[in-house]
Amino acid sequence: MKYVVLIHSNPQPWGHPTIDFTEVGRSIPADEREAMGKEFDAMLAELSASGELVSGLALDAPSTTRTFRWEGKRPVSTDGPYAESKEQLAGFFVLDCATRERAEELAAKFAGPGDIIELRPEMIF
């Protein structure tokens, strides 16, 4: 079954990896951040080798967003994200896991300083 790992964050300025651009992430010594980055890269390599990593993308700043809504009888577009929250969607990974437990185990590994991770299963229809 496929799962999406959604990474919500508020890096200032916007950038990736988010640990380098969040207040809590910048408070971690550079050598520790570097070690965490190497661990994360190793995890992605493992998931890629096992076939569990389907894809992933880092997303550009919310200010580059264009939002489309249906109003009346037509779509209307506006600048900026829909969400009126501090944290924004910063990126995502798609995993293909045998069980929900495995997906949850992996999702926990995506959690980093200043990030909120959401795990959502694919809807089958």
UniProtKB/TrEMBL annotation:
What is one Pfam family matched by this protein? YCII
User: Domain YCII-related: where?
Assistant: 1-109
- What family does the entry list? Belongs to the YciI family.
Entry protein name: YCII-related domain-containing protein
Species assigned in the record: Kribbella rubisoli
